[in-house]
Amino acid sequence: MLFGGSDSAGERSDTWEWNGSAWAELKASGPSARVLAGAGTLANRFFLFGGMANPSPTGFADTWEWDGGSWIQRNVAGPSGRWCSSMAPLRGKLVLFGGYNGRDYLGDTWDWDGNTWAEHKVPGPPARCFHSSVTLGGKVLIFGGQNESGIRGDLWEWDGSSWTERQSSPAPAPRNSAAMAVLGDKVVLFGGSSLGQVFADTWEWDGSAWKERPVTGPSARTGAEMAALNAKLVLFGGNINRGPQFIYFSDTWEWNGDRWSELNVKGPSARTNPAMGER
User: Fold this and answer.
1) Domain locations in the chain?
2) Residues 165-180, mean pLDDT to the nearest whole number
3) For residue 124, what pLDDT band results from cuts at 50, 70 and 90?
4) Using alpha carbons only, how large is the chain's radius of gyration in Å?
5) What pLDDT, on a 0 to 100 scale, did the predictor assign at position 45?
């Protein structure tokens, strides 16, 4: 599933589905146009939370559900309005961490069980936005992002009750807006950016150590999204700042665990930071 994102014309509100070989647009009304919404899958339902749209980037606080045929807004109380938070599933719940509300970086931890939001008031990672989040080995991992101190390169695990920082060397350079997903028993990280540098590197985390994979694949970019389907990862979109303008990507790539392959398919228009996840 893919929803929204932004390009040179602004935020988008279209919904797309990838079946492993082709993209199909799903004509359904739903969330307003937005970019940088949190997204995750729970019980075969795709959920969105928050995001932002110019010219008022204070952040939405709405929760939406895609049930396979239509969007449904869930009228529930929960996290405050924000964008560039992260969401990942853990033991029948979606875990949301952090984000930005146009004024403050956030460092709160929330659970969504499909009906109700609940906050965990526990110490954890420093507040941040533009971080990446996945689930591996019964734990949620977050990596990177940025806050008032700068671009981050730390890795944290959430076990359902507490956060633990994981440290290893070598490791990916600090960055924000990297694409991250799980294939088999490994986390795969691609791209992202840091203070004008845009990456095209591929890394794997096996639960104890990072390893860079010396492969050629998508061009350097930030704001791409990645998700798993049929024992492969699919990566879409992103952008790069080339001089006075941003270049937005609409290419689709697959990672099979050993190499990247570009797929000759047509799909969503070029964009960055859409919401994307398995369903």
Assistant:
1) 2-273
2) 97
3) very high
4) 17
5) 95
Confidence of residue 56 (pLDDT cuts 50, 70, 90): confident
**pLDDT tops 90 at residue 133:** yes
Global pTM reads: 0.96
Instruction: Return d(Cα 115, Cα 99) in angstroms, integer.
Output: 21
The full length of the chain comes to: 279
Half-sphere exposure (CA, 13 Å, Cβ side) for 165? 10
Q: Which two tokens stand for residue 222?
A: 């930030």
Quick one: 95 exposed, middle or buried, by C-beta within 10 A (0-12, 13-18, 19+)? buried
Q: Are 88 and 96 in contact (CB under 8 A)?
A: no
Averaged pLDDT for residues 64-84: 96
| Whether 180 contacts 188, CB under 8 Å | yes
Mean pLDDT of 5-30: 96
- Closest-CA residue to 233 (of 250, 218, 219, 220): 218
Which H, E and C letters describe 2-26, residue by residue? EECCEECCEEECCEEEECCCCEEEE
Residue 244 has pLDDT above 90, yes or no: no
Q: For residues 239 and 251, is the Cβ–Cβ distance under 8 A?
A: no
Q: What is the DSSP letter of 127?
A: P
Which amino acid appears at position 226 of this protein?
M
Kindly report the CATH number that applies to the domain delimited by 2-273. Answer: 2.120.10.80
Rounded CA-CA distance 15/2 in Å is: 6
Residue 33 neighbours by CB distance under 10 Å:
16
Cis peptide preceding 170, ω within 30 of 0: yes
In this predicted structure, what is the pLDDT of residue 233?
A: 98
